[in-house]
Amino acid sequence: MSYAADLKSHNDKYVPTKTNGQLPLPPARKVAVLLCMDARVVPEAALGIKEGE
């Protein structure tokens, strides 16, 4: 299986379990965060934010 196919397979399993209907729209903090892609950085932990903020 190619890496792209592996990612898609994981995403296909993730999507049905994702429930975020309780999250506010627009996001509560009204901030956009632009980051470089560094797999060592977990933006939520680094910035002290939670999903939906």
Automatic annotation (TrEMBL):
Note on how the cofactor is bound: Binds 1 zinc ion per subunit.
Keyword Zinc: yes
Region (Disordered): 1-22
InterPro entries: Carbonic_anhydrase, Carbonic_anhydrase_sf
Cofactors demanded by this protein: Zn(2+)
A GO molecular function held by the record: zinc ion binding
Residues that bind Zn(2+): C36, D38
Annotated keywords: Metal-binding, Zinc
Origin superkingdom: Eukaryota
Family note: Belongs to the beta-class carbonic anhydrase family.
Entry protein name: Carbonic anhydrase
